[in-house]
Amino acid sequence: MVNPTGGVLYPARLPQFHRLPPPAEAAELVAWFWIPEWDIAPGRSSRQEVVSFPALNLVVDPHAVTLSGATTRASHRDLRGSGWAVGALLRPAAVAALIDDPASLVDAERVLDERFGDVAGLRERVVGAMGTGQGHRERAVAEFARWLAARAGAVDDSSRQANALMDALMGDDAALTPEEAATRLAVSVRTLQRMTHRHVGLSPAAMIRRRRLQEAARRVREEPGTDLASLAAELGYADHAHLTRDFRAVLGVAPRVYRSEAAD
Questions:
Q1: Domain HTH araC/xylS-type spans what residues (predicted)?
Q2: How far is CA 139 from CA 15, 33, 133, 231, in A?
């Protein structure tokens, strides 16, 4: 079961937002599909703030298909008017089919054109599905998954090892250090670093820090009585001060301030 709001800093402020698991044909390529839909009153906007997962996203909206890289900081998007997007949080096995150097897209995004294949056809099919009635999200995801599976082709052992790397760094019971992740995967730390650079664009340590910060934000938000010193120790921070520095550096606020803001 995927967390429907993981990485979203203020879930109570979301418009309609859905996360759907990938169809079987794309299970090795996509962690989940995410679909926001909004209808904001004229003259108003809705700011969505996110600490993204350390992965690439392929996003279709009514106007374009965009590949977004991993991020190193919190980001936001102001929604206005009416609209939607259908995004795929990509597993490492899908990345090589879309970009040779994911590090070049860290904290950036690229609108895809005909050089990447039939992206216009992908957009048209997803737009068509989103314009239908009940079940439109599922139909959009099915079209998206078919296109991506055809684009990526057969998943080989190397790609599966890259997926295992993501599981070791970001999954349930994830490793607390790069050394632990390397041991689980039976590779050297240097090999682990090369793999994350090739498939995500970030270092293993940066990915672990992002996961810890996401979990810290979730716990502070959902369990406001949580003792911050105990939480820091549980998540592998050196101490409470280290957790607070991480919070400030990425979110721009201290954990206590975030806890108060998230409760509003």
A1: 160-261
A2: 20, 12, 10, 41
121/47: higher pLDDT:
121
Does domain 157-204 correspond to CATH entry 1.10.1060? no
pLDDT-derived band at 8 (thresholds 50, 70, 90) equals low
Instruction: State the residue for tokens 């997962």.
Output: 53
The domain 207-262: what is its CATH number?
1.10.10.60
Is 95 exposed, middle or buried, given 0-12, 13-18 or 19+ CB atoms closer than 10 A? buried
What is the rounded CA–CA span in Å between residue 14 and residue 264? 13
Whole-prediction pTM: 0.85
Amino acid at 248: R
Q: Which two tokens stand for residue 93?
A: 């096995």
Q: What does pLDDT average to over the chain?
A: 87
pLDDT digits (tens, 9 = 90+) for 160-187: 999 999 999 988 888 989 999 999 999 9
Distances from the Cα of 102 to the Cαs of 74, 128, 167, in angstroms?
19, 30, 19
Cβ contact 129:140 at 8 Å: yes
pLDDT, residue 1, reads 36
Instruction: Give CA–CA dist 27/24, Å, rounded.
Output: 5
Q: 190 by DSSP, 3-state: which? A: helix
